[in-house]
Amino acid sequence: MARDIHDTLAQGFTGVIMQLEAAKGATKQGNLAEAANRIERASDLARSSLGELKQFGIDVVVASAGNMKTGGPEKTAAALARVASGMTTEQRALYGQTFGTFTAALNGMQNSGLDSASAARRVIELAEQVPAPIRAAVGQDSEEILKLVHEKSDAELDALRLQLVGLK
Question: Which parts of 87-134 are beta strand (E)?
Fold first, then answer.
């Protein structure tokens, strides 16, 4: 059984690596549509491989975490403050207002995240589901993002990203 599990994982990882290498090549050639296609195929292969593990009694849940309060927000805020304070007068004139808007939006998002205990409870809850879901969100913001990814076009998602960080 161990050999079968090993073979399943090895085949899956090999396919994922091949698709990601192809995506890297397409990106270097400037063919972003092909790169996106290859990344999607890699994602599909990974999901399929995880699904194949169910026959061995192994349920794997891919939990997409949203913003979390783990000390990271303070580090990010400090790093952004260092970038802002390192700007020249010209850079501040060109980018200061936009960078300030971006910084405020990003810091606000990170400070509104889940605390570690709530995130851990959600992960345990997901792991105890029978059958376990292949993909699940941890946090309201993550749930909303996953929903939008399935409903919106790439152009709409780009506009939402800009809006999300206060740049539109």
Answer: 114-115
User: Rounded to whole angstroms, how far apart are CA atoms 112 and 139?
Assistant: 10
Residues contacting 39, CB < 8 A, separation 6+ = 19, 20, 23
Lookup: tokens for 9: 């994982």
Residue found under tokens 């059984």 = 1
Domain spans, the chain: 1-59, 61-168
H or E element: which one contains 62? strand 62-65
Mean pLDDT of the chain: 81
How large is the greatest C-alpha to C-alpha distance in the chain, in angstroms? 65
DSSP 3-state assignment of 65?
strand
Q: For residue range 65-123, what is the model confidence (pLDDT) as tens digits?
A: 666 666 667 788 888 899 999 999 999 999 888 888 888 887 777 777 777 777 778 87
Number of residues written out for the chain: 168
Distances, alpha carbon 50 to alpha carbons 9, 12, 86, in Å: 8, 8, 46
* % of the chain exceeding 70 in pLDDT: 89
